Amino acid sequence: MQEHYRKEHGWSNPRGRGGSQQTRRIQAQLVPWRTGVQSQRFFSNGPASSWFEVGFGAPATQTADEAAMMERTVRAMEQKQEQFEREDRECIKAADAKTDANAWLERVGWADHLQGLDPEAMRQLTDPVGEEEHVLQLIQDSIMRVMLQARITATPSTVGSQALFEVQRKEVDKKPRRPFDNRVEEDTWARYTAVWVKLICYVYRAETMEDNERPGFRLTKRQGDTMDELTELIEEYVEDPEANPLDEERVDELTLQVVMALLDHRLTAGEYRSGIISGLAVLGIRKDGGWMDVMDYTPMYSAVIKVARAMVVYQSYRERKEEVARLQQEKGLGEEEAEEEATSMFRIVREKVQRFMTVTSKETYAEPTPMDWIYEARTYGMYIRFNTPAGGTVDWDGDHITYRKTRFRMAALTEMLHALTREAREHLATLTMVEDVDQLPRIPWKEVEDDHSEDRMGYSFLTDERNREWVKRGKNWVMNQITDTQPDGQGQARRKVWIDNGRRDGKPFQARAVQSYGQTFNGFMERMFMLMYMMSQPARIPEMSGIRHQNTWSLVRVLFWLNKHLGLARLYGGCGSCTGHSLRTTFPQDNNGDWVENRRTPTPS
User: Which strand (E) or helix (H) includes residue 604?
Assistant: First the structure.
């Protein structure tokens, strides 16, 4: 280093010979280079073989001004980062088709429609009605009444099956395979109606917002006039209930007309001019930010379609009733004559269905409506659902199983099922009034006969003549246990518990004994339901709790006997009621004569 400085920089060493130690230390600090520098090079020779500094031998120091400047810089960077994060939360941005590819979001176009708007503010437009929103609360009450009445009306006995076939139509030139069916589980209907309530709340609230803050949908003149009339009618009541009593029938009529107007919307300037489609986009915003996945979202389209069909039937039914009443008044016709002259339910329903409840037809004059867009979006979403592998929720690690946040051992699950079986047998012993499970009455399974083709009312394998002998032994079993008079029996003790000789109301049993027996029966059925649910294809709860063991007026039994196996035929989800097929589950007996559910055979119902 000294040689380099002498030749290249003309440097001379100021330190001479001799001198004190202190003078030498001071002179050593006056050299023009630094010591303790960490260096590195990539190659030992050739190009790029020179050394370069990679570290310092001593920590750097800062002046007070430099420290203050660095603090201001860090604070500014943190504020900018917070601003970026806040903008991401408070402003919806359209995705880049190249860098953020998502076929589902690109298809529905939610981000483009809501770009630049506050997602939280948009989501709040669909929130439950607040205490101060008196007008909206009454509108919500009205739409709930309308949807309930629509569900009640859309039955074959009220409007006829042909009208229900027509309202089920999806394509103008193709008749559906089945009619509209209003039978859905109560929780399903609650979820479906909740979607419509949110859409109505969204449209009402958005109409009160400033243009630069609200979504881009626009009400048509018919929609706006009907909504204004409904709102004014309710506002008059809210301002002075005594002077302006609320006419619920008129409110419900206007609410239904608002729904019909929202459905009957020609999409002449883009689909997101529709309040329904715009509201469905907002319903796609998750509470924690981002968009709902297609796997979870498509049921909302089904909700809109199902309830809309019921309300179209209801509106058609109301129109026909009004026409009949008008004919009676204007022409003096009797009710039956007016019914014959009035437009048929089928024609009224068909006119509405073909105008705004089907996909766009191939006719040159046809124009798309919200239902056309919803059908197409749902079809695309269902295609993705059925062709995308489900996300993994179960993890196996040897004998350990992890399901989401629950972890257990397979042996523990097996032991739980064995414990449930033991508890069920103990409950059954109590119900049959025997002292131990080993004394449970045995059934000669090998001798049981059944005729699957017999559809006579009241028939089951229990009433088959070939099974008379062993069935007869079980007749009145519980009552015989109570009235048992054998010296070594328990009849006397049971009679003391069960029989109430002091009652004069014709009911001979002790109320406490009946209540206890019912609780034991419920405990037995709880364990049976759990075993059926855990050890086979899970069934719908109403089917599990309402098993038909014999033929009825309308339906064939669901319990069958075949080759030493008891079969239970049942429907699964909505598909079974649509296709008319059931799934028969067999319960092979184990060595003790009990039932173990482990084999499933699909059969037509």
Answer: strand 599-604
129 is in which domain, residue-wise?
103-386
> Which one-letter DSSP state was computed for residue 271?
G
| Rounded CA separation 343/176 (Å) | 23
Query: Within this chain, do residues 215 and 139 fall inside the same structural domain, yes or no?
Result: yes
Note the pLDDT of residue 61: 63
Structure tokens at 225: 């006039």
What per-residue confidence (pLDDT) applies to 604?
33
* Closest by CA position to 127, among listed 78, 199, 175, 221: 199
Side chain identity, residue 582: S
CB of 72 closer than 8 Å to CB of 44: no
Query: So what's the pLDDT on residue 431?
Result: 93
Q: Are residues 449 and 585 in the same domain?
A: yes
- For residue 245 the two structure tokens come to 């009593």
Map residue 55 onto helix, strand or coil: strand
- Are residues 180 and 244 both part of a single domain? yes
* 96 CB burial (10 A radius; 0-12, 13-18, 19+): exposed
* Helix or strand run (H / E) with residue 575: helix 573-579
In angstroms, the CA 298 to CA 384 distance is 10
Let me know: does 581 contact 605? Beta carbons within 8 Å: yes
- pTM of the prediction? 0.69
Residues (pLDDT < 50) of the chain are 97-98, 573-576, 579-580, 582, 588-605
